[in-house]
């Protein structure tokens, strides 16, 4: 059984069972090192999930090098091994669930696919690490589109490698597939993350279930520094802009 220090990546992915998550959270309350590691991993769980699912170890370095925002190679290797082992344990115990899937978009930005519970809208979609990180980030920009009525807040944090972002999305109904796109001041567009919107939607104030009333929180990353960003767009896969948030 690995020590609590070695379960940061598995906790960020949400693949610990209730007992393991409770034990780690008790450890986290008094461990600054784990808290710092969890903060750095917020919004990167889909990338780690994708790396953990790769067939064979030979592919990991190439994909790691293609990402526009990534941790150090040693950290990636450690976390991938950890996640793969945790998933193997859960398969053997019979209750393993896939926490996230990922895809690489042109120029290597981080793409996340949000997954929820059942079709009745009762699933908890927002990842707790992303929501917690959103609450701690002081640089937030918000907007509501007058036509679609979709509301979005983008929280940003400057990193040595670029910008970490967490999106809070409200008043959007599905079914849709959407992306968070960064538009730089030089005109370049970078997809930071992507997800599916279920029928019941996110952040719907008149929804019948509490889960559907809650916003979506999803992380992303890009190589641009905050002062190089012009605005963010939430767009559907068909190209429809749901809301624009100026940086």
UniProtKB/TrEMBL annotation:
Keywords: Membrane, Transcription, Transcription regulation, Transmembrane, Transmembrane helix. Residues 8-35 form the Putative zinc-finger domain. It holds the Pfam family zf-HC2. The chain crosses the membrane at residues 95-115. This is Anti-sigma U factor RsuA. It comes from Streptomyces rameus. The lineage of its organism: Bacteria, Bacillati, Actinomycetota, Actinomycetes, Kitasatosporales.
């Amino acid at each position: 059984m690995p020590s609590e220090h070695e379960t940061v990546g598995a906790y960020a992915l949400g693949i610990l069972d209730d007992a393991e998550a409770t034990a780690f959270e008790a450890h986290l309350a008094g461990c600054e090192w784990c808290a710092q590691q969890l903060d750095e991993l917020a919004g990167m769980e889909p990338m780690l999930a994708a790396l953990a699912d790769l067939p064979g170890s030979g592919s990991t370095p190439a994909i790691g090098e293609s990402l526009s925002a990534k941790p150090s190679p040693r950290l990636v290797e450690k976390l991938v091994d950890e996640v793969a082992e945790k998933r193997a344990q859960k398969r053997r115990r019979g209750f393993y669930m896939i926490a996230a899937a990922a895809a690489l978009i042109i120029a290597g930005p981080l793409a996340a696919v949000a997954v929820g519970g059942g079709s009745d809208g009762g699933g908890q979609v927002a990842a707790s690490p992303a929501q917690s990180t959103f609450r701690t980030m002081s640089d937030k920009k918000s907007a509501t589109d007058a036509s679609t009525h979709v509301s979005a807040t983008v929280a940003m944090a400057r990193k040595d490698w670029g910008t970490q972002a967490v999106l809070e999305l409200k008043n959007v109904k599905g079914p849709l597939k959407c992306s968070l796109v960064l538009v730089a001041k030089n005109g370049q567009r970078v997809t930071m993350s992507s997800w599916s919107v279920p029928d019941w939607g996110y952040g719907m104030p008149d929804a019948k279930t509490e889960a559907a009333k809650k916003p979506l929180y999803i992380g992303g990353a890009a190589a641009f520094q905050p002062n190089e960003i012009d605005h963010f767009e939430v767009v559907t896969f068909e190209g429809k802009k749901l809301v624009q948030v100026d940086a």
